[in-house]
Amino acid sequence: MKHKFQVFSLLTLALFQLSISVNAQTFFKQHPQINPYQYTIVKEQAFQKAAVTSAHPLASMVGAAIMKDGGNAFDAAIAVQFTLAVVYPGAGNIGGGGFLLSRNKEGVLMGIDYREAAPSKAFRDMYLDEKGNPIEGMSRSGASASGVPGSVAGMFSTLPFAKLPMKTLLQPAYELAANGFVITEREARGLNAERKNFIKNSAQASAFTRKENWKAGDTLYQPELAATILRIQQKGKAGFYEGETAAMIVEEMKNSKGIISLEDLKKYTPQFRKPIEFDYRGHRVISFAPPSSGGIIIAQMMQMIAPYPLTVMGANSFESVSLMVEAQRRAYADRAEHMGDPDFWKVPTKTLTSNAYAQARMKDYQPGVAGNSKLIQAGIAKESEQTTHFSVIDEAGNMVSVTTTLNDTYGNKTIVGGAGFLLNNEMDDFSIKPGVPNMYGALGGEANAIQPGKRMLSSMTPTLVTKNNQPYITIGTPGGTTIPNQVFEGLVNVIDHKMSLKAAIDAPRFHHQHMPDMVSVEADFPEATINALKEKGYTITKRGAFGRMEGVMILPNGNRVAAGDKRGDDSVAGY
Ligand code: DON
């Protein structure tokens, strides 16, 4: 292992020098207000013209600067996606996928699905042994867990809606990778926690592992990632999906039974999806369609609770929480049965999102009485969750909401040898066997079974809200299957409980996903509500914080107020 490190540091130096000579360093020179070696977290601020909220201060500042330089919200989103891939490697990515939801200044909605796809050699029972039992870790760890990455292609599909050239939008990420940036305490902890897995799962040493432990304030240099970004700058999409980078990905596959081929990479294509839309108390809510389950689930839940006086019931009171939990139970019950990649499975979206269906589903709801999922408890939802969301609203009123992921924290913990980026373990979001829960305790069946080229069902829920047909909120969060519930609760907090965006984001959260039949709550959830729920027969589990919600909202005076979650290093920027 020692040898791996020595080779890496020599290589680091060589590549570092090479990349500097090829690509003039311009972005941070031209934006001295952004200092990669010293920055602070800003949790909430109102801006007059444009705002960004993301999981990392540097990414938010880059997004704001790009807009100030003449870019729009789409430019900012592209720059933020790539910057997060450098400064927030646990979830920001080029080796994963995501969903971009937007409403442009003319009111046109768009959903870009750049979710990973199952490789062409994938098959239904690929994660089962001869006896039909799941092979421990195979869908979660190492190259065998990877779907074909979609993020880079997704950004190229976004480019026609942006104003600046891709080269410019990639430049901040390039410079941060080549010249390094100072890591936060949280990042240091994350990298240290995964050190062993990075070494075990990767064919070569990488920038993420060194002899000593990481600590806050250390500078992380990623010369190999810089070289990959440079190839994308020079060759466009082909700089990732073909040539040297593609060859490195395929080479890395050999180390841990991965099956992604050169052909799979070359043919990866994002899909445009018609967003899900519904009304809630005078607001129009817009969210992501399948292969996300999120938009359908929040449409169901919000329509289920609409007949009830949430404002009177109060935030996180027994009355409102028990009502919302029963809506959650019913909506999530449909997830496993009906939802999957719409190109492979007929999802009854129209029925599921109709108000009539929502009301019919609540016919047997009795206020104050605990429902029963009547099913055996499955796996427990995980606590450490890494996906990431960012929200942008620009001066013209274009709104962009993006959730992107490697699935688990640092994905499958495999760094593509020589290319310096982490690969996803998104294949675990498929139902690897009916009745076997994935890492979020989600079950599935035929709708979400593995097939070559198919996209795995997601819970990511990038969401937008308009009021009187004017842009209002862009919001989203990570958190696996808890995502739709978090967005649901965040919106109810703003719309019904009249909370500020920041208060709505920080309020303690709860989660029920039908199976297992229990309500998980965060540690600071009100005890009185917990006790009242327990008295009525609900099973309550306290768990660590879930999600890192990022939102931007337009105030009546036109200001864009941006709010980052208290739960992470989330930070806002704008002008
Ligand atoms: O697409 C999904 O639903 C999951 N892969 C998202 C994972 C996630 O949110 C993990 N982290 N917070």
What does this protein look like?
With 575 residues, the chain is an alpha+beta fold. It folds into 2 domains: 10-37 and 57-272 and 386-448, no CATH class; 289-382 and 465-574, Glutamine Phosphoribosylpyrophosphate, subunit 1, domain 1, CATH 3.60.20. The chain has helices at 2-22, 27-30, 57-68, 73-87, 151-158, 166-179, 185-201, 223-235, 238-241, 243-253, 262-267, 294-305, 310-313, 318-338, 349-352, 355-361, 483-495, 501-506, 527-535; strands at 44-47, 51-54, 97-103, 109-113, 181-182, 219-220, 271-272, 276-280, 283-287, 387-393, 399-405, 463-467, 470-476, 510-511, 519-522, 540-543, 550-554, 560-564, 571-574. Strand 14 (510-511) and strand 15 (519-522) form a beta hairpin. The longest helix is centred in the first third of the chain and has 21 residues, at 2-22. The chain is globular and about 65 Å long.
